[in-house]
Amino acid sequence: MITKIFLLGVLGIVIALLLTTDYVQPIVNSFYSLLPFLSSSIIGTNVGKLLTKSELAQHNGKQGSSIYLAILGDVFDVSAGKRHYGEGGGYHFFTGKDATRAFVSGDFTDKGLIEDTDGLTHSDILGIEEWNEFYKSNYKHIGRVIGHFYDKNGMPTEAWRKFKDQLKDAKKNKMSEEDDRNMFPPCNFEYKQDWGRRLWCSTLSGGVKRDWAGVPRQYFQPGKSEPRCACVRDKGPPAGSEPSSVHSNRGDLDNPLMKLYEGCKENSFECFFKE
Ligand code: HEM
Q1: Is any atom of ligand 1 closer than 6 Å to the C-beta of 131?
Q2: What is the Å distance from ligand 1's center to 127 Cα?
């Protein structure tokens, strides 16, 4: 046993020495240079060129240079969109930098043209992803900028992983919002000067096609500060349950999150509010 430990120790020292020799160093270096390639198979985009921030800054269209911009650390050649991005163009401020946050904040000052995605809402995060997809489909991907989202080997940083987590949450939230709209579709709404506000339900209200219309209710959705008008089933089992003798055939009328609008009849598909 002791001999085995001794031999392993010697082997370790030999490997450590070898790694520092001039013969093996190029092999080690070429392994490191493969890292961006390996990362591309992990995260699904070609790494391309690695640019420092100051290299990226030189591609701002001035003195005939090509025009680059970065979003989420991905660098694109937007020279083809010179009328937007060239000097004097309405979106020139995006060039030569990664201003991920400004794509959704609309803050185009120096303070706003930054990469950081901290504290953005779910819809902002989805917006950034859409812009990134827009550039991938419309412009040539050049590579990655070293700094916030990628390190000097082109490997994702903590900020990149954080963005991916934010994106996962935002997608999950979007799906549950959609499920919610399908279960309790929004009401139709109209306003007429002579008879005021009208809320009503139809088999297409809220853009949700279905075979029932339902009745309008104030829906106090958990996590939302304001109730919204929802069309709820007034017969059959409650949403999401199978018909059974356990249910009272009153749909979602007894759902504690639903409240009848004052002045509206319990089984009417429409409500009027004089204002
Ligand atoms: C957060 C706010 C906004 C951002 C980040 C933004 C960003 C952009 C970008 C990057 C482009 C160039 C797209 C390309 O490469 O083809 C663009 C084009 C354009 N944007 Fe905006 N924009 C914003 C708000 C607005 C608003 C409020 C308007 C209108 C009032 C507007 C009108 C336009 C128009 C007309 C084009 C040109 C479309 C074309 O000629 O192809 N944008 N926008």
Answers
A1: no
A2: 13
Domain with CATH 3.10.120.10 in the chain: 23-174
> Is the CB of 113 inside a 6 Å radius of any atom of ligand 1?
no
Question: Tell me, which fold does domain 23-174 have in CATH?
Answer: Flavocytochrome B2; Chain A, domain 1 (3.10.120)
**What spacing in Å lies between the alpha carbon of 275 and ligand 1's midpoint?**
39
pLDDT digits (tens, 9 = 90+) for 149-163: 999 999 999 999 999
pTM for the predicted model, two decimal places: 0.70
Tell me if 212 CB under 6 Å of ligand 1: no
Closest CA to 215 of 191, 199, 192, 238: 199
Q: How far apart are CA 96 and CA 76, in angstroms?
A: 10
> Does 76 sit in the ligand 1 pocket, CB within 6 Å?
no
